[in-house]
Amino acid sequence: MKILVMGPPGAGKGSQASRIIEKYEMPSISTGQMFRDAYNAEEPIGIEAMKFIRDGNLVSDDITNKIVRLRLHKEDTTTSFLLDGYPRTVAQAAALDEMLVEMESNLDAVINILSSHDVLFERMEQRRVCKKCGRTYHLRFKKPSVDGVCDKCDGELYQREDDSHESVKRRLEIYETKTKPLLDYYSEKGILYHVNGMQDFDKVTDDIFLVLDELV
Ligand code: AP5
Ligand code: MG
């Protein structure tokens, strides 16, 4: 099964992706996480990408398409994968189509997680992320057992550089103008499924599994 998880920033893509990949045993490819990992490892691509990410802007299509292409060429993506946060522009969707043709493959479903802007602002301001393993917390809805420490790996929790109020505003603007139009593109292909992301974690997961169980 090859799927995309789409939705505005803070909709719950990463949180739900981790549950989907556990159930259906597939690799998750999150371009945002790849950029953050590269930045934390002080790799040039990560340092370059963070210049855009910090202020809520998109990284260039060229760089982004290149890292996805390299990742999709690894062996573990032959039968299944989940893409989180890619594609985000029309040019990226076209590049992904090309990659899929090269792989003699196609997408089975695009899950779009819906949410209102009020909810998104609150979620991102309250989000904390583990520096070591990338696991995501929420200071009210998904608190770590010990303040500032990851339950899974004891890593340090931090607030993402792009979770400031100004960056979130910018990310939402970009989502509306550049990414949301892609929903029509996937709707026309007949593979788009909407899920209400303003429910509790488990209900959102159940709704996603209802869609995906039909496809396996
Ligand atoms: P990326 O990392 O993909 O960020 P994003 O799309 O802005 O989405 P987020 O990761 O912020 O939110 P999410 O939907 O994963 O929500 P989460 O599960 O964490 O990209 C970051 C940046 O990298 C981009 O802005 C861009 O600069 C660059 N980039 C990435 N991909 C790119 C591309 N393709 N092209 C160009 N540039 C690219 O949840 C959010 C919070 O809410 C958490 O605290 C969570 O615990 C909580 N929460 C989640 N679900 C629920 C629920 N149901 N109830 C209560 N709380 C919930
Ligand atoms: Mg995410």
Describe the structure.
The protein is of the alpha/beta class. The protein has a single domain, classed as Rossmann fold (3-Layer(aba) Sandwich). Helix content is 47%, strand content 15%. The chain contains nine helices and eight strands. A five-stranded parallel sheet has the order 2-3-1-4-8. Strand 5 (127-130) and strand 6 form a beta hairpin. Helix 1 crosses helix 9, helix 4 runs parallel beside helix 5 (90-102) and helix 6 packs across helix 7. It is globular. It starts with a strand and ends with a helix. The chain binds BIS(adenosine)-5'-pentaphosphate and magnesium ion (MG).
Please report the total strand number as a whole number: 8
Cross-sheet strand order for the largest sheet: 2-3-1-4-8
Q: What profile does the largest beta sheet have?
A: 5 strands, parallel
Q: Could you name the CATH topology? A: Rossmann fold
Report the mean per-residue pLDDT as an integer.
96
- Element-by-element helix/strand order: EHEHHHEHEHEEEHHEH
Distinct ligands, ions and cofactors found in the model:
BIS(adenosine)-5'-pentaphosphate, magnesium ion
Q: How many domains, as an integer?
A: 1
Percent of residues in helices: 40-55%
| CA-based gyration radius | 16 Å
CATH architecture: 3-Layer(aba) Sandwich
The outline comes out as globular
